[in-house]
Every structure is written in C-alpha cells, then in structure tokens.
Amino acid sequence: MLTKTAIITGATSGIGQAAALKFAANGWQLIVTGRRAEKLRSLQHEIQEKFDATVISLTQDVRHPASGEELKKILSEKQIKPDLLINNAGLAAGLAPLHNGETSDWEQMIDTNIKGLLYVSKSIASMMVEQGFGHIINIGSIAGKEAYPGGNVYCATKHAVNGLTKAMRMDLLPFGIRVSQVAPGAVETEFSLVRFKGDQQKAKNVYKGFKPLTAEDIADAIWYVANVPAHVNINDLLIMPTAQASAMQFNKQNIT
Length: 256
Fold this sequence. Notes:
Strand 2, helix 2 (about 35-50) and strand 3 (about 55-60) form a beta-alpha-beta unit. The model has no long low-confidence stretch (mean pLDDT about 95). The protein has one domain (about 5-240): 3-Layer(aba) Sandwich (Rossmann fold), CATH 3.40.50.720. It has helices spanning about 15-25, 35-50, 65-75, 105-130, 150-170, 190-195, 200-205, 215-225, and strands spanning about 5-10, 30-35, 55-60, 85, 135-140, 180-185, 235-240. It has a seven-stranded parallel beta sheet, with helices on both faces. The protein is built from eight helices and seven strands, in the order βαβαβαβαβαβαααβ. The radius of gyration is 18 Å and the shape is globular. Helix 1 (about 15-25) packs across helix 8 (about 215-225) and helix 3 (about 65-75) runs parallel beside helix 4. It is of the alpha/beta class.
C-alpha cells in the first residue's frame, strides 16, 4: 500500500495540529506549515517519536504570495505527489463593530483567511491537476454560513471560503480533484485567545457554560471526509457542539 501525503497549513496548534497527529497516527506522510518555528519543530519531533512517520516542516506565513510556490518547490524537489491539502491556516482578530474596527485586523484576516488559502491552493491544485488526483479540504466556519454582531470582516472571510470551496469544486471537477469544506461551530482552541489578542479571561468566557468542540473532534471529521471511497465527495460538513444551534444560540448552564 502506497503512503499518502497530506499538506496541512496552520499546523502549529489547534485543529491543524490535531489533524497532523491524526493523519500521522494512521500512516500518512506529512508536510506541515506554520508561522511559529519552535512549535512546528516540536510537532515534527512529536510525530517522529510517536509514530515514526515522515514529516517535513516549513516555517512560513501563508499571507506571503510566494507561500504556495515554496510548498510546490519542496514537493517537486522531493518528488512527492500531494494526495491531500488541508487549508487550515486562519484566524479572527477583534470583535469590534464595523465602525470601530481596526483596519490592520481586517487586513490580517483577509490576507490569511482568503488570500493565503488562494496562494496555497493555486500551487497545489496545479500539481493535482497534472498528476490526475488529489483532494482539497478547506476549514470554514459557522461564520461562513451566517453573520453575528462584531463578526463583520471575519464572517465575510469565512463566507468567502464557503464560496471559494464551491467554485473550486466546479473548476477542478473535470480533473477528478475532490474539494470539501469542514465548517466547525465553537471549538476551544487558541481561536478566541487570538481574537482577543491574548486576553485569557475573555477567551475563557467564550466557552463558559457549555461543552465546546475540541480540535480532536474536528480532526476526526477531517479524517472522515478525506477517507470516504474515491467515488464519494463530502462537499460540505457543518459540525457543531450539541449545546450550539447557530452562531449565536447556545444552551449554556452553570457548569463548574
């Protein structure tokens, strides 16, 4: 049985890290990317120690237009054919109403969540088209299905991911490339800590009173989407905590 290769962006924490561990545990070869070199090296070491798996790490910021070509160059040099791309790199910055928003936050979200996804997808999709197989899984959000107060630009970027996933599916259909979206609701990762710029109390309060999803829950969903039979494509998978019905509706209780 041939070893498959998965590329995972934003693998230094949260969903990306959990997905890397999940796929490595099941015998996949990995290429993991992220901005934090030390965390990336730590992940690489953990994977090699636990699973004796092949893993290549690349410290990069997907906001840079060359990020996709950097990945493509490594794959080409090592003669690796990508089976799967997981576009996980993304973030929310701030929760201000539009009229009080920070333009630097807007640019960071747009450049990471939309443009970064495009840079990487273009380069890897071109390889998949040439080789005649492949699968791209975009990590979306409930924020790509509906908006909420203060979410403005973040919601807009995830609506873009939702739309891009549909368009990519159409564009790559003639070449046998599968394209999917996994869209989580509330997941307790570094997401809120990043959104609130390191304010741990604000981040903790987001998940107070209910049991949120974990990064491992989403990694399980990604694993499922990636491993259905070849004639099956999961176009879109929305996954929520039991205690969450929409972007704004939660069944919160006094959980100590």
